[in-house]
Write a structure and sequence with these properties.
The longest helix is centred in the N-terminal third of the chain and has 24 residues. The model has no long low-confidence stretch (mean pLDDT 96). A five-stranded mixed beta sheet has the order 10-11-14-12-13, with no helix packed on it. It has a three-stranded antiparallel beta sheet with strand order 5-6-7, with no helix packed on it. A hairpin with a 5-residue loop joins strand 1 and strand 2. The protein is of the alpha+beta class. The protein is built from eight helices and 14 strands. It comes from Paraoerskovia sediminicola. Keywords: Glycosyltransferase, Transferase. Pfam families: Glyco_hydro_65C (PF03633), Glyco_hydro_94 (PF17167).
């Protein structure tokens, strides 16, 4: 919740700063207040929640760390590694270290586990998760919904290869020929897959009962392909595998159509070096302007 709080403040500030620039005195006061609050949260999170190679989940009411290298069970939790990056309150170095820890400790051929190692002893100071059978649901299963967040985090860090690696691991399509293990439709996300601490490792459970598809759509389109909305235009800022030559996207927004072509001649993951709109140069660090209703424009973005 701390990281989500920081993310929400940053989203609020985007609007407040826009209003402040337009001369709204109430927005000016909000900008001062919430910039200070965001700085405070960042400082506290750095001091209290960074564990050396990843972020802790938190503390029990008795002051015992949960999700720390100090623990014998539940050393690391998935959700807490991505959100400091998404919230923009950590450094590139710490972001990469936490994502590397996810890959090393939580990763698998079926997606990232929710936590590790699984709890095998009941501990009511930690809570309900310790009463769940190892490898099922909250206790070290591969929960589909939060698997989208490391994809977004890796894309924001500029590591497109790693982002798509995470995306591919849990993609149902890639289990099309593995029905003997999966046991569920290969065209729908499931709530969870049994984790490696369970004898049914990789078996899918509760198809359709999840918000995963919407989050994966967000991760793939807004952060890997990098086409997302801003207050003053359309952002095109991809984070893709280096092997990709590029891609094309048709984006309809506010009654206009943006035919977007991304070129990757230098085979990088991230970094926009030039933008043209209908053949006219546009600043590479600025969103593509909102087009009149009914317009159709060609946007060419070059990475390098």
């Amino acid at each position: 919740m701390t990281f989500l709080h920081a993310w929400a403040i940053r989203a609020f500030l985007e609007v407040a700063e826009h209003r402040s620039a337009a001369g709204d005195p109430r927005a000016e006061a909000d900008v001062v207040k919430y910039r200070a609050e965001l700085a405070r949260i960042t400082e506290v999170a750095d001091a209290e929640l960074w564990d050396g190679d990843w972020w802790v989940r938190g503390y029990t009411r008795d002051g015992v760390k949960v999700g720390s290298a100090e623990n014998t069970q539940g050393k690391i939790f998935l959700e807490h590694q991505a959100w400091p990056v998404i919230a923009g309150i950590t450094s590139q170095e710490r972001g990469e270290r936490s994502m590397d820890s996810v890959r090393e400790l939580l990763g698998s051929e079926y997606g990232n586990h929710l936590n590790w190692p699984a709890f095998t002893e009941v501990d009511d100071t930690v809570g309900f998760v310790t009463r769940v059978y190892p490898g099922i649901k909250e206790n070290a299963a591969i929960f589909s919904h939060p698997n989208a967040w490391p994809i977004i985090a890796e894309a924001m860090l500029g590591r497109g290869d790693e982002a798509v690696e995470f995306y591919d691991a849990i993609l149902p399509y890639n289990q099309n020929d593995n029905i003997e293990v999966r046991g569920a439709e290969p065209y729908a996300y499931v709530q969870f897959l049994y984790g490696r601490d369970h004898e049914w490792f990789g078996k899918a459970q509760n198809p359709w009962l999840t918000g995963t598809a919407g989050w994966m759509y967000t991760a793939a389109t807004k952060y890997v392909l990098g086409v997302r909305l801003a207050l003053d235009g359309l952002v095109v800022d991809p984070s893709i595998p280096k092997a990709w030559d590029g891609f094309e996207v048709r984006r309809e927004w506010r009654g206009a159509v943006y035919e977007i072509e991304v070129r990757n001649p230098d085979h990088v993951s991230k970094g926009v070096v030039s933008v043209t709109v209908d053949g006219v140069d546009h600043p590479a660090d600025r969103p593509v302007p909102v087009q009149p209703e009914g317009a159709e424009v060609k946007v060419v973005v070059t990475l390098g």
